[in-house]
Amino acid sequence: MIRTAIYLLSAAPLALSAQIAHAQSEPVSTPDTAAPAADEPVQSDIIVVGTAGGGTRRQDAAFAVTTLSSDAITRAAPTSTADILRTVPGVMAESSGGQNGANIFVRGYPAGGDAQFVTFQIAGVPIFPPSTLSFLENSQLIRLDETVERVEAVRGGTGSLFSAGQPGLTVNVVPRIGGKTLKGFAKFSITDYGDKRGDAWISGPLNQDTTFMVGGYYAQGHGIRNPGFDAEKGGQITANIHHDFDGRGSLEVYGRYLNDHGQWLLTMPVVQNGTQISQYPGFSGNSNSLIGPETQVVTNAAGRRIDISDGRGAKIFNAGITFDYEVADGLRVRERTAYLGGTANTNGLVPVAAPTTAAAMAVTLGGAGSTVGSLNYANGGGAVSTGASTQVLQAGAWNVQKKITSFVTDSALEWKTGGNTLTGGFYYANYTTHDNWALGNNVLLTATPNARLLSLTLGDGRVASSTTGTSGGQGFLVDGSYTGNDYAFYAVDELQITPELRVDGGIRWQRHEVTGQVRTPGGTVNVDGNANTLYDNVSNVLGTTPQVINYGAEAWSWTVGANYDFSRNLGVFARYSRGNSFPQFDNLRGLSDSAIAAHTGTAVTAKVDTYEGGVKYSSPLLNLYLTVFHNKFDGLATTQIVTLPGGGTGVVSSIGGAKATGVELEGVVRPVQWFSLTASGTYLDGTYQGYFTNNGLNNNTGNMVQRQPKWAWRVTPALDVNVGGLKPSLYATVQYTGDRFSDPENQQLLPHFYQVDAGVSVTIADRYTFQVTGNNLTNEFGLTEGNPRQIGSQGAGVVLARPILGRSFRFSAAVKF
């Protein structure tokens, strides 16, 4: 491949960063310092994300970044990769779906779910360039383990210039590298619900200038929501070799293999009346699962075997190389390249509607006047004793198979002269996915934890639900192959006008291309030809003629910012940026050739204008970062998979704009050496503007942007004591999530809630560490999602919603050697 680069103006515009969970002041390293070695102190005062690659001191920065050291990650005790983003102001991360399937929202950007405006990187390279495809968001493709040195998260700012050009949130996961001496670490963890996990790494020198690191984890268990079988299983292994060129640069080669899956946690029955929510009788919203042994494997009406125990996860290999070298005084070359390949599948049991009586279900499945003839357990046990009054529900056994690949390369040249830093670069990404979906596949269940399959025969002899529990045929089907190509040139310039004043500006041109062939439902069939077996009378089949997709668009992004330091400890910044978000594969599926060519409907390119400014103060006593921002969105488009009136599944689109004004505050105060108080908070006023959902039928202008509260905050006090060879620590976090709505129509209220987490650890002789962490200590019953497959209100009483996970404890023992 021939790669071209245009080198014009440049410089790494700087980043404002706040450490939100680290209790000590940190050393300053030079911008060209590589990632910290395993046996050296964490240099989290230097951040790389949001820059052209050289890094910068956080206090000198000119946009908002949060950094988390490995110790801070351990204290936060995230339940998933996405869960760590709860600590980032301006970000609403919902991890109630389990290890995978997170919903992450940023600064009032309107999105229907997943993580449309969040890009994850490893060592500065996007893991998978599309931030979200249907049933795949970036956090699904990486796990946080002890091989991670730190996490950096930039929101807004210069994110639209670098890497994949993400105008929302870019999260950079920085791996640990080896040091000058041989070091190792091992940890074993067990939860109060029986899940087990082992973590380990070892690192050290290969020669005077070359080091290595290898490590990972393996975990197994059934999870907090026990389905009656091991649903959480897998691990990750990461290795790298790092070489230093006598202080002029470095070369790093890394590889990572992930094979991990977990239960996809979905909505369940709850009782809601206005702002009051309670648990559905007999169903613990904190610990129960609808999935059970009888639904572990489901065979749909078309004969497709769906293994629900595979859940949602990934089996991928990721390898890359980063190269940074000063070829002449002031002139540096940087190269970052990575490849990813594997599968990222989803299997889940998706409730269709809230529980109802078997008598009402008979009408739903058989039509007006239908009655219950017999209701039996599908797998033995005879008739259901409560008969027509039994509470039942339907759920779809969804199966989504994705085979994905990506190749990303980012080449840059930096030139420093006097007070000016110039950087120009070229970014190229090629990525593919082959999708095979089978949604729908409804089964009839008891409305109980670990639900049992039901066979329902109507009073007139028609069979509404089969002897295996099947109550509906295949719904929305997809068989598609897509290829995306992104080409981008970027150029940035940073000028130190005075010792106190620095200005920067940059531009990015990007070309986005998508080709593909995709088949969707082309009609329905009666699978067995028998009109009296209602459960398979209407089953979708794929069309024979594929839709051919050819899409291309290009756009400019730019930014200009200024930073003024009153002193080394106190500074202010201001910035304007324009970013773009191009339509991805699922936005183009089902559109006409004319709509794709005209870039209308969901083929539109979103434009995001951001104005932000802030104050930052950093000292041994206090770190404080305040950011004020205003965003304006135009042309944002999403697709939503919904339950159709007849019980099937279909796709509707939403398109329009929004605006948001907000304040982000984060900081830590250390009045004495042994005590710290860390806090962060967000105020957000985000509303839709000309935003239409349900294929244009619902105008939601003025409504609150879904799933993002006006107020959210967290406070973490911590005690760290050093008593001889003992270092005990005690810490706790109180987090508040305000009222918000699950839907753009603002008809599914998610009431506010508090969550309390805490932990205690003891380190002995700087070698052995014993730790206990507790999540949701008060067993709070808080909702993160209503019914995303229903447009508008669910009514009062029994509804479908997804609660946060209940109280849990993790015990761990670790040793360094």
Task: Give your account of this protein's structure.
This protein has 817 residues and is mainly beta. The protein has a single domain (16-816), classed as TonB-dependent receptor, beta-barrel domain (Maltoporin, Chain A). 3% of the residues lie in helices and 56% in strands. The chain has a 22-stranded antiparallel barrel. It is globular, with a radius of gyration of 27 Å. Residues 1-44 have low confidence and may be disordered. Residues 1-23 form the signal peptide. It is found in: Cell outer membrane. It is a multi-pass membrane protein. Residues 278-777 form the TonB-dependent receptor-like beta-barrel domain.
Q: Layout of SSEs?
A:
Layout: E1 16-19, E2 46-47, E3 56-57, E4 64-69, H1 70-76, E5 91-94, E6 103-106, E7 118-122, E8 125-126, E9 132-133, E10 136-137, E11 148-155, E12 169-175, E13 183-191, E14 196-205, E15 210-221, E16 232-244, E17 249-262, E18 268-273, E19 276-279, E20 297-299, E21 305-307, E22 312-328, E23 331-343, E24 346-351, E25 356-357, H2 358-366, E26 372-377, E27 391-417, E28 420-440, E29 442-446, E30 454-458, E31 463-465, E32 474-496, E33 501-519, E34 521-525, E35 539-542, E36 547-565, E37 570-581, H3 585-588, H4 593-598, E38 606-618, E39 622-643, E40 649-672, E41 675-693, E42 698-699, E43 711-720, E44 726-737, E45 740-741, E46 749-750, E47 753-764, E48 768-775, E49 783-785, E50 797-803, E51 808-816
Parallel strand pairs: 1-4, 7-12
Antiparallel strand pairs: 2-3, 4-11, 5-6, 7-8, 9-10, 11-12, 13-14, 13-51, 14-15, 15-16, 16-17, 17-22, 18-19, 18-50, 20-21, 22-23, 23-27, 24-27, 25-27, 26-30, 27-28, 27-29, 28-32, 30-31, 32-33, 33-36, 34-35, 36-37, 37-38, 38-39, 39-40, 40-41, 41-42, 41-43, 43-44, 44-47, 45-46, 47-48, 48-51, 49-50
